[in-house]
Amino acid sequence: MAEERKDILRYALILFAITAVVAGLLAGVNLLTKETIAQNDVLAEQEALREVMPEAASFEALDAETAALYGVDAVYTAAAADGAAQGYCVKVSENGYGGVIQAVVGVDAAGHVSGVSIISHSETPGLGANIEKDSFREQYTGQGAVEVVKAGAQEGEINAVSGATISSKALTAGVNKAVEVASQLQGGAPPTPETPEGEEAGTDE
Hints:
4 helices; disordered C terminus; alpha+beta
């Protein structure tokens, strides 16, 4: 009996040791994965900044509290090599058809959109996901705040992605918010309180 108890205790200790080692390995892998994801997110954001404001030589982030007051994820001031102000880059998040659409919007010193780069989204492939296409995003360039129409866009308007009005409007809401934030910062105005909007229901059409 004593020998059996020793065997049981030995097996229990071995099992405990194996469990502890596996748990430690999983924790280490999880930590490394989180760090890798965080690093990739930073790289993606830096790439997006350069894409939407290619003439800028440097970007300086405003503090997180300021960005939060303006209702956006992040705000960067963009400057040329000689230090001249180029405008602002604003990171925004809006609810699309399939989930959150996160993008970086460049707004030049004149208040015009210099570029839009989508960092992440979960929109429907072949429909809402087409907001990533250059042909759609380039419609914002050179404009201020815009409205979405189904076809025949004039100045101050953009054509929605066919079959993806909700996705188009979601990204546009983010772009318009970035334009507004840049305008307020340019003029030294305080943030405008956001008015809650009802969520759009229905299919992505």
